[in-house]
Amino acid sequence: MKTKANQHGLETLLRFYREMQRVRQFDQKAAELFTQGRMAGNIHTCVGQEATAVGACQALEPTDFITATHRGHGHCLAKGGRAAIMMAELFGKATGYCKGKGGSMHIADLGLGILGANGIVGAGIPIAAGSALASKIKGGREVTLAFFGDGASNEGAFHEALNMASAWRLPVIFLCENNKYGVSVAIDRVTSIADIADRAKAYDIPGIVVDGNDVVAVFEAVSAAAARARAGEGPSLIEAKTYRHRGHYEGDPQIYKPADEVAAWKKRDPLILLQDAILALDPAAADKLAAVEDEIRREIEDAVRFAEESPYPGPAEVVSDVYAADNERSVAR
Ligand SMILES: Cc1ncc(C[n+]2csc(CCOP(=O)(O)OP(=O)(O)O)c2C)c(N)n1
Question: Which contiguous run of DSSP H or E holds residue 174?
Answer without folding.
Answer: strand 172-178
